[in-house]
Specification:
- By secondary structure, this protein is mainly α.
- The protein has a domain of 86 residues: Cytochrome Bc1 Complex, Chain D, domain 2 (Orthogonal Bundle).
- The protein contains five helices and no strands.
- α4 packs across α5.
- The termini are far apart.
Length: 156
């Protein structure tokens, strides 16, 4: 009897093979599991920037305050004022900022990478702060320079 299979099974000949019949649930589970695993690796990047035996996260390089002052003057002062004293309705004062003063250099760097949207509940001015200082975006090195400059202001 050619082409007859026991009850509950699928013939092995013809199109479909592994992805038909009783093997289908296992095939779908495998694809879903691989998708979740790949998604986890892409999102968390568990091996990015890790040295063998290193237990600490990469740190922000120490910037140049003089170069940071130039970057600040060209980008940040539009809202935060020429000396970081703030402009009402635009940018908070940075000379007395408990927020900036309470962050480590790494935390401040991470904040500057993403900026703050105008609809963020913590945004009290209603004006968006652009990620990386706007267009064109500041490089990592330039952000480190700005942070070094901010640390020279009174409250930061």
């Amino acid at each position: 009897m050619t082409g007859v299979s026991p009850a509950g099974t699928t013939p092995t000949s013809g199109a479909g093979g592994l992805f038909r019949g009783p093997n289908l649930p296992y095939s779908l589970t495998t694809f879903v599991a691989l998708g979740v695993l790949i998604g986890f690796v892409v999102v968390t990047r568990p091996f990015a920037g890790a040295d063998a035996g290193s237990t600490t996260a990469p740190t922000v390089a120490t910037g140049d305050p003089a170069a940071g002052e130039t970057m600040f003057s060209n980008r940040c002062s539009v809202c935060h004022g020429p000396g970081g004293e703030g402009i009402v309705g635009l940018g908070k004062p940075l000379t007395t900022s408990e927020f900036v003063g309470g962050l480590t250099d790494q935390q401040l760097f991470d904040f500057l990478l993403i900026g703050r949207s105008s609809d963020d509940p913590l945004n009290t001015t209603g004006v968006a702060m652009p990620a990386r200082g706007g267009v064109p975006p500041l490089t990592d090195s330039e952000l480190s320079d700005v942070i070094a400059y901010l640390r020279t202001l009174g409250g930061a």
